[in-house]
Amino acid sequence: MEQLLAQRENQVTTVGDASFKIDCEKASLSGSVSQRACVFCGSRVVLYPIADAVHLVHGPIGCASYTWDIRGALSSGPELHRLSFSTDLKERDVIFGGEKPLERSLEELIEKYAPSAAFVYSTCIVGLIGDDVEAVCRKVAAKYEIPVIPVHSEGFKGTKRDGYKAACDALFKLIGTLPADDVPKRSLNILGDFNLAGEIWIIKDYYEKMGIHVQASITGDGRIADIRRAHGAALNVVQCSGSTMYLAKEMKEKYGIPFRRVSYFGIEDMSDALYDVAKFFKDPEIMRKATDLVSREVREIYPKLMHYRQALEGKTAAVYVGGAFKAFSLVKALRTIGMEVVMVGSQTGNAEDYQQLRDICKPGTIIADDSNPLELSSFLKQKDIDLLIGGVKERPIAYKLGVGFCDHNHERKRALEGFVGMLNFAEEVYSSVMSPVWQFAPRRERRTVAEARQ
Amino acid sequence: MLDITPKEIKPRTALRINPAKTCQPIGAMYAALGIHGCLPHSHGSQGCCSYHRMHLTRHFKEPVMASTSSFTEGSSVFGGLANLSQAINTIFTVYNPEVIAVHTTCLSEVIGDDIPNIIAKAVSEGTVPEGKFVFHANTPSFAGSHMTGFSSMVRAMVHYFSEKTGAESGQVNIIPGFVNPADMREIKRIASEMGVPALLFPDTSDVLDTPLTGKYDFYPPGGVTIKQLRTTGDSLRTLALGPFASEAAGAYLDEKCDVPCDILDLPIGIAATDRFVHALKNVAAQDVPASINYDRGRLIDVMNDMHRYTHGLKVAVFGDPDHVTSMVEFLLDLNMKPVHVVTGTPGNRFERRMTEILEGRLPDSNFSANADLFLLHQWIKNEPVDLLIGNTYGKYIARAEDLPFVRFGFPTLDRIGHQFKPHVGYTGALHLLESILNAIMDRQDRDATDETLELVM
Predict the structure, then answer these.
(1) In the CATH hierarchy, which top-level class contains the domain B24-161?
(2) What is the pLDDT of residues A218-252, one digit of tens each?
(3) Cβ separation of A377 and B91 shorter than 8 Å?
(4) Fold of A187-292
(5) Cα B436 from Cα A193, distance rounded (Å)
(6) Strand bridging mode A148-151 / A85-86
(7) What is the ipTM of this complex?
(8) Does the pLDDT value for residue B236 go beyond 70?
């Protein structure tokens, strides 16, 4: 592939190659059209769904503007998280420091909205001009008697993953700050689910049907008081492990709360998520409820899935997502509807993730870390792919090439988690891959003609 | 509840709530995309580039390409020289553009990277291939807004490329301002109908409104070429549309190459378009052709046919200063009352121009530069309006106050139309009027009782 950057050679590999090795967790090459984001972005997405806190972006206006209500992380109550707050730093603040505007902004915010807590995100220049954000937060917290938590998310201080870690550090400061003695024994916290399109409500409902109390859905439809008492739960279930595994590990260390890594995408992984939790509680009643729930739900969706499978059998897919863990589920979920993944990549996967991907993908599958649009488009053409699963920036590239697309990122409009989510996913994939519009798109048009000739 | 804006207006000293602007670099990136074969380059952290590409993609529904210096902790201590030098090398090796347009960010500005020096070094070391270019604009995110960034990048085009050779040229430069590709296409059409050989820069038509062909062009066919940019110094005249976006480049071209410049309002609405057409007529030294007069006539026809529906309605308008200025004038010409007007971009010039336009027609109107949507919402709560006009972020206010809402300006993330329908010129004004009237009439139908529902409107 001629467009592959020489320096990126080791970040792309093919399943079945004698020496399967992939470089990852590397900083992107300067000058690449990377699909990655920054530290701030990582922190912002993890904490954003906490709906009764104010999220103040300390920096020039852009960082607040671009992250204003762009994730459909739904709240069942307050909507504070959907407003955009910024200190809107100007030249004089860069020269004289931003501490005073930060303090005044926090005061004005707290007096206006009486939030349960405030998060203060540091952006690039805050790291350079050296504001003592910690000190301002302490002062304001003491004055208003609410948690005011600095998030060390200066954009340049690493990758999006470091932003996840900064967010976890912020959350960890909150946990354990309210008594949790009355949290039921059979309880868990949900980590790493962002309640996009209301997905966490589906999952919460499953756990509750099994007789398990959900103490805090920390990163989706989150509430400060629930999070402050999250140390009372018996178990942490961690999805999107890239973003919240740090927190789970910290909570295990400090509070002795074990965790389970789960995924709610696809029938297999969704069922496993429920069974793993049931096994943890060692209660046959919970397991029976889980089994009943799974068989009921699967019975409901299976015939409908098979309808889509009939049409999609043999089609191919490419997956390019933020975290690699999601890719495992997608490979399996696509198999359920008859599709094979022939290219898979992520922005932030680690060596273990890619090793696991190799184990579940068929020989010949391309695996890429931190890919760019040129590479992606050449993979799509090379493998004659029918569907790309990715995010905002990948969508139009797929479409221009006449390739179907499914957003498995912020812009999903329907729940894709849970059993019902699997059905929605199949329908989304079907609607794009089998869309009548492709008969008018030149590349597909040629293929249709070629197929007809055979 | 989504509406948590209090009615009582208390002064704020530092806090920005629900901004009506964004930062400089995205404007620079958009302007640079209007050069053929150009790869915009963001000299800063990875997030900046990612956010700008995402935001532009959401507005245009098109692929948006740009590269980044991918700053790390090291570069913030030692400066971004190594990053940018490596970036230039990587970009020409891998993405092979005709030209790289570097813009800075808050990070590289505070570090104080000397971009011209880094570029000069790359040229002298042979990193920049023969016949290819690297140029730059300083776009500190902590000053101005995305409008400023756009303006600075266009000025940089003049600075780096415009030449006065003394060659005879009948050409007229048009700097279109921060408008959509469909608008740029329409401006070219009007100039061509008027018999004016126009060179538009930047020009994002056929860059950010490309067809689905089954082929993915990393560099789409549109955009002004560097060769064309060079000739701008020999042009007869420059028409700079929208002072915030275009004056800097137009005035600088006058200073650098003695090309006289007319600074005009963005040709949105009838009066501003009249002034634009008049300026073209002066250059062409020929009469306005029938086709343009008919466009104008059709617009006036609809304005008159439907005046009952627009007369006296109160409107709140927000967005970029060039857009808002012309829109306010158009609303007054429709006999509507733009009682609240907000732009997020700072600048006294906006307030001066507003005073000029509103004086004698609606002197009590509220208007402010450097304001936000929170303030606009409070104004509306204190003096309700019948219609809201602005970008997508207005939808929270429209919902809270149950207002008909016309999307206008950047960004429009939640409706379709701006990608292919111009808002400039007489035709653009007709499109805007159509949107305004339909919003008002849909509302009337929705609110009508069974007995007052009208078939013919």
Answers:
(1) alpha beta
(2) 999 999 999 999 999 999 999 977 789 999 999 99
(3) no
(4) Rossmann fold (3.40.50)
(5) 41
(6) unpaired
(7) 0.95
(8) yes
